[in-house]
Amino acid sequence: MKIFKKLIGFIFMIIVYLYWQDNRIMVTKYEYQSKKITQLFYGYRIAQISDLQNKVFGKHHKKLINAIKKQYPDCIVITGDLLDRNRTNVNSVIELISEIVNIAPVYYVSGNHEHQSGKYNELISALKQNGVFILENNKQIISKQNETISILGIKDKSVNTNYQKILSVLSNIEKTNFQILLSHRPELLSVYSQYDIDVVFTGHAHGGQIRIPFIGGVFAPHQGFFPKYTNGIHTQNDTTMIISRGLGNSTFPFRVNNRPELVVVTLGKEVKEYE
Questions:
Q1: Are strands 179-182 and 147-153 parallel, antiparallel or unpaired?
Q2: Going by DSSP bridges, is the β-strand pair 224-225/211-212 parallel, antiparallel, or unpaired?
Q3: Among 220, 227, 173, 213, which residue's Cα sits nearest to residue 196?
Q4: Secondary structure, 3-state, 25-93
Q5: Are 244 and 263 in contact (CB under 8 A)?
Q6: pTM value > 0.85
Q7: For the chain, which domains are there?
Q8: Reading across the β-sheet that carries 179-182, which strands appear in turn?
Q9: Model confidence over 124-180: pLDDT tens digits?
Q10: Helices then strands (H, E): number in the chain?
C-alpha cells in the first residue's frame, strides 16, 4: 500500500512538472549591439512570438498578452506556426492578434504549419484585416525621423521558397545600414549569412523539445537528433541568428527543461572596450 501511494505521488509530481513546463512563460532578454544601429534606435525593443501552434495561455490569451505588455516592445515579430495543422483554429489566433496590435506594430512570416493546415489564405486575410504587416518575401522600412532600419521576411520553405534568390533581392532594395530578417527555419543560417543581414529571428526547433543539461535539445524538425540550432544566439560571418524555443507544442505534447519562451531583444550601440 505504501509503495502504491508513493507511486501515485510520483506520478502526480510528474504531471504537475509537465504542466508547469508547458504553461509557464519564460521571458528571455538579449541585447544586440552594433555600430550600424543609429542613435534614435538605441533602446528599440523587439518582442518575438514563435511556434504558438494554436496554444492558449490563460483565458483569451491574457497571460501571453500581459507578458508582452510588461516588456514595452516597440514592435512584435512573429516567426511562423501561429496555427497547428492538427488542431487549426484561426479565430483563436486572431483573438490574440487583435489585442497585441494595440501594444506595438506586428510583423509576420509563416511557418510550415500554416501552409499544411489548409488555412493559410484565411489566416493571411484575417491578419491583414487586423493591421499586421505581412512579410512573405517582402520588406518594410521602420523610420524614426530621418533614421531607418529594414525588416525583411521570408515565406516558409514548405512552399518551395527560393531563399537565396529572394534574399539577394530583398537585401538590396532600399538598403539601409541595419537589416533584420524574419524567417521560420534556423537550420538555414549558412544561407542567411551570405547576405547583408545583421539579425535573423527564427523558431521551428521548439528548443529541441526535451533539453538535457550541458547537452541541449534532443530533436528538432529538419535537423534530427541532437540538433545544432535549437535556442539562443548563433553567429556566422557578420550575421547573428536568434532562435526562439517557441510557445506551443505540436506532434510531441510535452516540454522538458524547456518552458515556453517569449524572446525580447533590445538594440544598442556598440560598446568599445574603453567605455
A1: parallel
A2: unpaired
A3: 173
A4: CEEEEEEEECCCCCHHHCCCEEEEECCCCCCCCCHHHHHHHHHHHCCCCCEEEEECCCCCCCCCCHHHH
A5: yes
A6: yes
A7: 2-268 (3.60.21)
A8: 138-144, 147-153, 179-182, 199-202, 239-243, 232-236
A9: 999 999 999 999 999 999 999 989 999 999 999 888 788 999 998 888 776 678 999
A10: 7, 16
